[in-house]
Amino acid sequence: MTTSSILGQFDLCADRAEFPDQDNGYYYPVDARIHLFGDDTRWAVVAELLGYTTRGGNLIDVVHCFGNCLTRGEPGFGDFLDRVDNMSEIDPDGEEVYAGGVPVVVRGTALTVDAPAGTPLQDVFRLLAPANRDLLMADGTELRARIPADLPELLRLDEWHQPEDLGAVMPSGHETFRMIAEVLDSGDPARYRPTLPANTHWSHWPDAGTL
Predict the structure, then answer these.
(1) Which ranges constitute the DSSP H helices of the chain?
(2) Predicted TM-score (pTM) of this structure
């Protein structure tokens, strides 16, 4: 396990378009989170991009998994987790707008929405995210679905600086992911010392979801 080998896996997945990309044209970004796990010989990263996809017809937590100890599958895309239980009630006509007056049910929990009828669904979900992050993002079981249950968590990032164009800037050439690799290699969360401002809030990616 070395910084260069970790970055090499990141770059390989980015080259295959299986690395977290906030500018993905297929879903509107709502929230994001990265978890770092590791010990003396093992490392893993679980990255979540929560977004509304019109093609999938739901708010989906797109989970990416990387590491040298994955318990199933290859590095890259992991699971695609639907979050809303009652899409047919909040958007009965399939027009991708909120019906109004209906709670959004997430994993059996009804969440009240302060939005009028006709509000685009991505805006509805974005309103819900700040107060309900832990309900919307992966729980413990989902988070460890592809990594060893005993692997310690080193660091969780609720925001970071993401490359604006992964086609032009590979993870190995970007500050955030170089520091992530250093944390994993050393086991020291203090190695994460960002100098670039966080840009993972959905407002920084106006073209995402518009394909």
Answers:
(1) 3-15, 87-90, 121-128, 133-136, 140-143, 175-186
(2) 0.94
